[in-house]
Amino acid sequence: MNTSFMRTLIATSLALAPLAASAQRSIEDIFGDLSGFLNIIITFLILLATVLFLWGIVKYITAGGDEEKTAEARNMITWGIIFLAIMVAVWGFVNVFLEFILEQNTDTIDPVPRGPQQANF
User: Fold this and answer.
1) Those residues with Cβ within 8 angstroms of residue 35's Cβ, 6 or more apart along the chain or in another chain
2) 52, 59 in Cβ contact below 8 A?
3) Which pTM was predicted?
């Protein structure tokens, strides 16, 4: 065997070692972590698309009648709207997947992890 293949194999096994250690997790836990990760990514991308849209509006207002700047600003506004529509559709698809396929109610998901309950004496 060549050394490049062995290095790649060792690096891959070391990278996947944490997954083997968490093999006792249920599929619901894995999907819960995945949905949390997707919610963070989707929220960030929606924020980014909103900033793109608003920046296009600012550029349109400050264009001062220049045709080239106005066209560039309209292009930014259009792409901002397209990205917002795509991200809202992806967000909706993730929620539909969680509610109907996994039968998980996303309305009651607690975004802040809580520790064990303490008894008040």
Assistant:
1) 94, 98
2) no
3) 0.56
